[in-house]
Amino acid sequence: MPPTLLIHGGAGAIERGKSTPEHEAALRSALDEALAAGQAVLDAGGPALDAVIASVRVMEESPLFNAGRGAALTCEGTIEHDASVMDGAERRAGAVSATKRIRSPILAARAVMERSPHVHLTADGAEAFARSIGLEIVPEWWFFTPERQAALERVQAAERGESGASERDRHG
Amino acid sequence: TVGAVALDSAGHLAAATSTGGRANQWPGRVGDTPVLGAGTYADDRTIAYSGTGHGETFMRLVLGHRLACLVELAGMPLPQASAQVLDELAALGGTGGFIALDARGEAVMPHNTPGMYRGIARGGRRAVAIFGDE
């Protein structure tokens, strides 16, 4: 079987006519860019682990997806990231959770797998570990987008019974 | 949530998932993404898997690992095992989808939501989709 790569950018109330043609085109372009990044690794004979990381990195950097930059906001208006990676060859795994300032959560998860004795690091400990090995740390505002801020306000207004929030708002 | 699964030319599988969680969640809420077997799983003997959706239900089902067990221990083909775990997700009131590959390159991208951002690259070609009917 030839090398194969699958990606997803989230599931939810994604229905025709709910977004503009421009937004839909931007999404398709971003998905294709993520595929191309992973495909390039596989086509060069590279490992599946590098391919999945390359694809996820593209989507973390894109404000269109609920990961990395453009992530959904907590009820306190903050952002917390979770990520994990698993290598099927030896069932090695790495994960981070509740991180706020690590630019790439998936690179942090991989570093936990490859450069720590642990499988999962969380919150301040994960941040300290990332800093100690030189992963890029950014200010929290770097991850924020106006769209997610507006979505949070709609969800919270709905919780107060003031107006409806879409499924899309809730799930980012 | 975003994710990727891959099968390389050496026959190895891998999976990766990254997320911002759910809008308006409590600080400190951890969903399925960093919980191995729930949001992400890879084992060369069975499948590579990455999930997205109502994380709490994925965790209660340990959905990715359950999918791997149905393939390995029950000998189910991946499409059949995927349909079963998606039914179990819905039976618990969960919504979402996942991507999965087995060691022979069988690929599934099922979801019980109106749409899922998804894509496949194989044999030098790429295709992406957004809506459920694509």
Descriptive account of the structure:
The complex is a heterodimer of chains A (172) and B (134). Chain A has 172 residues and is an alpha+beta fold. In chain A, strands 2-3-4 form a three-stranded mixed sheet. In chain A, α3 links the parallel β3 and β4. In chain A, α1 runs antiparallel to α2. Helices cover 23% and strands 35% of the residues of chain B. A four-stranded antiparallel sheet of chain B has the order 3-4-5-6, covered by helices on one side. In chain B, strands 1-2 form a two-stranded antiparallel ribbon.
- Give me the side-by-side strand order of the main sheet of chain B: 3-4-5-6
The helix-and-strand class of chain B reads alpha+beta
Helical percentage of chain A: 40-55%
- Please tell me how large the radius of gyration of chain B is: 14 Å
Helix percentage of chain B: 10-25%
Radius of gyration of chain A, in Å, reads: 17 Å
Morphology call of chain B? globular
Task: Looking at this protein, list some descriptive labels.
heterodimer; A: 172 residues; alpha+beta; three-stranded mixed beta sheet; 45% helix; globular; B: 134 residues; four-stranded antiparallel beta sheet; 8 strands
